[in-house]
Amino acid sequence: MEWLVSLTGAGLVMAALRDLFHTLWHPTRRGGLSRLIMSGLWRASQRVPARKRVAGLVGPLAMVTVVVMWACTIILGWAIIYWPHMPEAFSFGSGLKPAQHADLLDALYVSLVTIATLGLGDIVPTEDWLRIVAPLEALLGFALLTATVTWVLEIYPALARRRVLAIRLALLRRADPSAHQMDGPLGASLLESVATEVVRVRVDFTQYAEAYYFHDDQNHAPLASSVGYAAELAQRGQAAARPDVRLAATILAGALEALATVLDEQFLHTGGTPVEVFAAYEADHGRSLS
After folding, report:
1. Is the bond leading into 87 cis (omega within 30 degrees of zero)?
2. What is d(CA 126, CA 124) in angstroms, rounded to the nearest whole number?
3. Which of these, 30, 110, 112, 147, has the minimum number of CB atoms within 10 Å of its CB?
């Protein structure tokens, strides 16, 4: 029975590690529990009356919540591993009575002290296998901290690339290039560069799906409100006389279609055309905050 309880704790630890791996390091970057938490907070924020004021907090709060979930699951799992073997498999410092420190709370204390690498030494394992397992928890705590910092450092460059594209499209819409300007070398270069940035954003949504749950600043042209103009540029370019402009416009149209596919498959689930997907994206991010 003791080993069955310990195996249950090990299962919790493995579940947290699996979710962490799929969220941060798996090629698809699709964590199960972490995605549920993020999407749940996103949907909950849409029901808040003052959503515009809390919108910017959803993404950071979702990441913090996921990290806390990982940490709590790992701490609880390791505590359940220790619990059945207390107090006989542990050595207690002077002033502590082993019979009074054998419940789950004490196991949680040992787990928390170990994962935080505090090394207080008042309760330490004496069984050989526990003396090996306990340092592994400390290493895991260090790995969790490192993974969290890496996650934060990865997500914000992706958000910056998205915002750069959004602002560029907003500036292009304001400049409103003429048909003559589009049907020239400048038009081909412009469409090709926009297509490159769209591809980067599409890759970011694939590799960093949590970026979807970050709101852009509504005062500086969010991508959800400006991506439709990129589709308009592609349509205008495909009607140009120059073959290089038409080619660049076709590439841009393909990049936008790929972006719409990622948005729909991972987040929106409309099953519609790219135009309908971008409209749903704007409703989810842009007009809903107006």
Report:
1. yes
2. 7
3. 30
- How crowded is residue 82: how many other Cβ atoms within 10 Å of its Cβ? 27
* Single-letter residue type at 229: Y
- The backbone torsions φ and ψ at residue 125, rounded to the nearest 5 degrees and listed phi first, read -75, 145
Q: How many angstroms separate the Cα of 282 from the Cα of each of 93, 130, 228, 259?
A: 61, 53, 9, 14
DSSP lists the bridge partners of residue 123 as: 92
- Distance of alpha carbon 44 from alpha carbon 209, whole angstroms: 18
Distance CA 209, CA 265 (A): 11
pTM of the model: 0.85
Kindly give the pairing relationship between strand 123-125 and strand 90-92.
antiparallel
- Length of the chain, in residues: 290
Task: Provide the pLDDT for residue 179.
Answer: 87
Q: Splitting the chain (290 residues) into consecutive groups of 10 residues, what average pLDDT does each group show?
A: 87 93 78 84 79 77 93 96 92 86 91 88 90 92 92 92 93 90 90 97 92 77 89 94 95 97 94 93 69
